[in-house]
Amino acid sequence: MAKKHIIYKEDNWNMITAETEGSKITVREISTEWGEDTFVFVGRHEMMAWAEKHFTADNYPAHEEILARFAEL
Q1: Per-residue pLDDT reduced to its tens digit, 3-48
Q2: What are the residues whose beta carbons fall under 8 Å from the beta carbon of 33, sequence distance 6 or more?
Q3: Whether the Cβ atoms of residue 23 and residue 29 lie closer than 8 Å to each other
Q4: Could you read off the pLDDT of 45-64 as tens digits, one per residue?
Q5: How far is the C-alpha of 34 from the C-alpha of 12, rounded, in Å?
Q6: Cα gap 29→44, rounded to integer Å
Q7: Which of 47, 66, 58 is nearest to 8 (CA)?
Q8: What's the pLDDT at 34?
Q9: Is 70 exposed, middle or buried, given 0-12, 13-18 or 19+ CB atoms closer than 10 A?
Q10: pTM for the structure as a whole
Q11: How many CA atoms, within 13 angstroms, populate the side-chain half-sphere of residue 10?
Q12: Does the CA dihedral 32-14-38-4 come out positive or negative?
């Protein structure tokens, strides 16, 4: 059974969620500007490498909070 985690939530339309099922991690990034993007990772190490490249301070003001939540998974 998959466990859902809310990584970041601004409102009902702008959020980042992660579902963990064993070693498989599915990350969904939903925004009013870009729609929904889904990323599937086979392990935590792969997900953290992607998150550090994707959530930079230039693009996301709350990048430290987002990376901390990913690290808790």
Answers
A1: 999 999 988 889 999 999 999 999 999 998 889 999 999 999 999 9
A2: none
A3: no
A4: 999 999 999 999 898 888 99
A5: 14
A6: 17
A7: 66
A8: 87
A9: buried
A10: 0.89
A11: 12
A12: negative
Residue with tokens 């935590």: 44
Element (H, E) at 44: helix 44-54
- The sign of the CA dihedral 53, 58, 60, 63 is positive
Q: What is the structure's pLDDT at 25?
A: 96
What local confidence, expressed as pLDDT, does residue 60 receive?
85
Whole-angstrom distance, CA of residue 58 vs CA of residue 73:
24
